[in-house]
Amino acid sequence: MIALLVLIMKTGTTVSGWSVTFENPNPCALKGSSVEFSCSYNYSNGEIVSKTAWSKGQMKSGIWTRVALSDHPLYQNRSEYLGDQQHDCSLAIHDLQVEDTGDYYFWFDTNMYGRRSKTSLHLYVTELIAKVYPKTVRAGDNVTLECGVSCQLFTTVWFKDGRPVAKPGFQAQAEDAGNYLCAVEGNMAMQSDPVALEVQYPPCNVSIEVSHPGRLAEGSSVNLTCSSAANPAAHSYIWYRRNISSSGSPLQVGVEHMLFLSSVEASDTGLYLCQAMNSLGGNNSTEVLLTVGASYFNHFIFLVGIGVKVVIVVLLALVVIWARRCCSNHSAVDKKEHDNDYENVTTA
Ligand SMILES: *[C@@H]1O[C@H](CO)[C@@H](O)[C@H](O)[C@H]1NC(C)=O
Ligand SMILES: *[C@@H]1O[C@H](CO)[C@@H](O)[C@H](O)[C@H]1NC(C)=O
Ligand SMILES: *[C@@H]1O[C@H](CO)[C@@H](O)[C@H](O)[C@H]1NC(C)=O
Ligand SMILES: *[C@@H]1O[C@H](CO)[C@@H](O)[C@H](O)[C@H]1NC(C)=O
Ligand SMILES: *[C@@H]1O[C@H](CO)[C@@H](O)[C@H](O)[C@H]1NC(C)=O
Ligand SMILES: *[C@@H]1O[C@H](CO)[C@@H](O)[C@H](O)[C@H]1NC(C)=O
Question: How far away, in angstroms, is 22 Cα from ligand 3 center?
Fold first, then answer.
């Protein structure tokens, strides 16, 4: 009974020379990182420390209890006593989890009294949470990035697809779409999960691809494809043709993504343009010239061809005439000879 009373008395703070001091009683750390509790303890001269332990306060069946970290399965390989049996009671906890948040106590036994620290240290484990407001914007709208971290011990920086972001607020452009995350400055290992920003914009960079560039022969076929950058993707198209010479209004010639012209005629010649549209608006391509019929170059080739043919025909004719002449001369000689023979025969 007396021993118990003494024990109760000794657990109080009235015992002189007895103390446990935390350098920082309210540490805050990031999930996944390590934390070190700098701690020192003191006791009366002459006492010898026989045991030290750290414990965590937690509710067990409605009762606030202290569970020694050495008996706690979640801390088995993560807690490391850095102190000693003299005056250092520092502790490290590695690979911090959000559930590690809570009250931690250090206690020690001496050869004279079992003691327990009454004051506790409160650890707060926080996560980096990237927030992008809003997550979907129209080009030109403002975007704000917020790195949610509960203790303001850290300077955070932003990255978009691995590249640093200059400012956590900006007017979104098409190229700002991507995955954003925040990280502790100078420690990329401490980073949030990425958050995607979607930027919507009307079609831009509208262009026409021609399946067969250059002049088209009459009767051939050609495909014109309208491509554009847009978010959401362009869903409707209008194709226009304008006569090169006349200043008349353009003629609507198609409404599909692709304009398929089969068996083209000279009248298909003109300046083609496509308009791409999505829910946010539309935009025009530059005009593309399509020419049907023989080109000047073709005319040239044609004329050269005719020239060559004419030369060949003339040469052939000359050869034939020459051959005729030669042969007819020969036959004339033969005839003469025959005539002579005949003459000879007849005269003989
Ligand atoms: C520890 O306790 C002893 C004896 O009570 C005292 O002389 C000493 O100054 C104390 N040390 C610290 C760091 O409080
Ligand atoms: C702790 O480490 C021991 C030995 O290194 C290992 O066998 C055990 O599985 C680990 N426990 C946890 C919870 O990681
Ligand atoms: C059309 O697209 C160009 C670039 O391709 C862009 O500069 C222009 O703002 C767009 N016009 C509209 C009305 O969206
Ligand atoms: C439009 O083209 C320009 C120049 O090639 C390019 O820098 C820009 O990123 C393009 N826009 C989109 C939304 O793809
Ligand atoms: C045009 O496109 C159609 C369908 O994609 C294809 O069958 C045809 O061969 C293309 N024609 C030309 C001239 O590229
Ligand atoms: C696109 O071209 C069509 C036909 O020339 C014209 O009516 C329309 O106004 C143009 N749109 C833009 C945004 O330039």
Answer: 63
